[in-house]
Amino acid sequence: MIDLYFFPSPNTWKVAIMLEECGLPYQVRLVDITKDEQLTDEFQAISPNGRVPAIVDLDADGGPQAVFESGAILVYLAEKTGMFLPRSGPGRIAAMEWLFWQMGGLGPMAGQAHHFIRYKAEGNEYAVKRYQAEVARLYGVLDRRLRGREWIAEAYGIADMASWGWVWFHRMHGQSLDDFPDVSRWFFAMASRPAVQRARALAVNRLPDSVQAIFDGPFYQGDADKGAQVSYVQSAHETSASSEAQ
Ligand SMILES: N[C@@H](CCC(=O)N[C@@H](CS)C(=O)NCC(=O)O)C(=O)O
GO MF terms on file (predicted)? Predict the structure, then answer.
């Protein structure tokens, strides 16, 4: 059993997608970041950076193993299961390259773009322009990478899982998928996977109303011409998420 310290967000979706794809048994421990629950001493004993996601693998050899940082968690779970990351060779190198690209580039830059566009735009035109342009550049890099290939690395895996949740928020960081046709194709292909839908739906009903509005759309609905509709599959873990939070 794995404890997943979770709040619906791009970084935590990565891990939920991986757990769902691998079929590993897990239980959700909701950390409500809108109530600063990530700052408690108890949580920071597991995740010293005070951010979700984190996991505790209760079945690890040698006793319960805590892991924080979404990229490290993805690699840990891939190595534990032997799934979604080749053990060696060019496929592993590509997966690691694009995982680190997401961790050091797309995620942090899109996060800054969200902050300045959504919360602090006034008086910060320079920051809005800088981060929006950098995110556009990164989308261009990903679009070129995906040209003529189905998935980001050699096969579907942790590099895709790492980037998908961030692209879900493309409108919030000022991007249109119409400008990035291969990112768009990849995004919707991944959105159609049942494991992704279950992870995406996890604990969304626990969001405060103000945040819920963001998750209901318009960001996911995508650009008008795509008319993307995903019918979400109820996660088997939804019940434990709800009971944890009470
Ligand atoms: N590099 C970290 C970033 C984690 C992160 O920023 N998590 C956000 C949610 S997506 C969070 O916990 N925010 C709470 C806060 O900012 O206090 C990772 O990938 O795990």
Answer: transferase activity
**Residue numbers of the chain with a pLDDT score lower than 70:** 210-211, 213-246
Q: How far apart are CA 182 and CA 150, in angstroms?
A: 9
Total residues belonging to the chain: 246
pLDDT of residue 106: 98
Dihedral of the alpha carbons of 196, 99, 2, 216, in degrees to the nearest 10: -40
Which CATH number covers residue 181?
1.20.1050.10
Q: Does some domain include residue 161?
A: yes
Any domain includes 123: yes
Pocket of ligand 1 (CB under 6 A): 9-11, 33, 38, 51-53, 69-70
- Taking the centre of ligand 1 as the mean of its atom positions, its distance from the CA of residue 225, in whole angstroms, is 32
CB 235 within 8 A of CB 6: no
User: How many Å apart are CA 111 and CA 128, to the nearest integer?
Assistant: 11
Considering only the C-alpha atoms of the chain, give the largest distance between any 2 of them, rounded to a whole number of Å.
53
Residue closest by Cα to atom 6 of ligand 1:
51
> 125 C-alpha vs ligand 1 centroid, how far in Å?
25
H-helix or E-strand spanning residue 198: helix 194-201
pTM listed for this prediction = 0.89
